[in-house]
């Protein structure tokens, strides 16, 4: 027993700490991986901020960055409990289990990670919860009221994200026990963000200005580099230790992204378009999205195939989407929604031992069912949440505010 301080009613240091199962290598890696994943959100801010027009750069970047604050507090209070608390029907966690991190201490929780402190596991999972709503923002960039967005982000993180995370990653989760494979968040993060983005683009409607001129391509390249770097923590960290699965996920992550980037730019040239920096960056991100659910379950050769198929599919999805009256500003649905779908389908096809190519159709069929239900549920619930928020705080800014740009109309700041 060691004397210590009490925070929010939880006395971490005066409770008994079982350190016998600690693995210092696992702890060191998971601290680093958590920091890597946190870095992805500022990286996303640069990625999205460089893509929008000049008068919306600050507002777009802040929509990502503010999630670091909002979700961090929400996660400690109740978010972690909803995702990883005592299972209620395999669908969601009991919010009372770890309310205000009660019981989230320094001893390992063997149900989740045997060699690292439970607090570290909770903080690692926090970074996933932060970036998921931030990903959605690219779909309605340039036309959403900041206060309304914050309220939507809170509701999304309380109602939509927790059941997906619980069912997929909790030991008693419905999808996990059904055999659905999602190594690092193909369904939980990317599909949920992608389909919520589609709902947001449809609910808010088209921008008043159809001309779109990216403000800063170097920002996009910088953001892509930060995201790629952080994604090693995102995927390799999901092995929850410094082990062989982490190495496999690391290699697959890099190779799938590289393949998708090359595929994208050469496909652009095949279509007699310029091999653009923007295309290279989008391709790299699509590859990272698609390999996420499969990172620890497939071989290197299969990661190449996943990157190749995902790049072509998302490229086609962007072209098809532009033919409809859906103004997804930064093509979030085509990149993350479709990329996540492709990754989950190909995980069911290529996963070692249980994939369709090994003659076992059970996992593949269950993945298809999961995709359909998750996509439909996320889209419908997100649309309802947008409508609910809109009744409390009008989500769309006025036409004159949109014309001036959200940097000035929402925040009183300008990019000079």
SSE class: mainly alpha
Q: State the low-pLDDT regions, or none.
A: 1-14
- Under CATH at level 1, the class stands as Mainly Alpha
Q: What is the string of helix and strand elements?
A: EEHHHEEHHHHHHHHHHHHH
Task: Quote the CATH topology.
Answer: Ammonium transporter fold
Shape: globular
Average pLDDT over all residues: 94
Question: Biggest sheet: strands side by side, in what order?
Answer: 1-2
Rg over C-alpha atoms, rounded to the nearest angstrom: 21 Å
Q: Could you state the CATH homologous superfamily?
A: Ammonium transporter AmtB like domains
Total individual domains: 1
Strand content: under 5%
Number of helices: 16
Oligomeric assembly: single chain
Q: How would you characterize the largest beta sheet?
A: 2 strands, antiparallel
How far the N terminus sits from the C terminus, by CA atoms, comes to 56 Å
Give the second-level CATH assignment, the architecture: Orthogonal Bundle
DSSP E strands, number:
4
Helix content: 55-70%
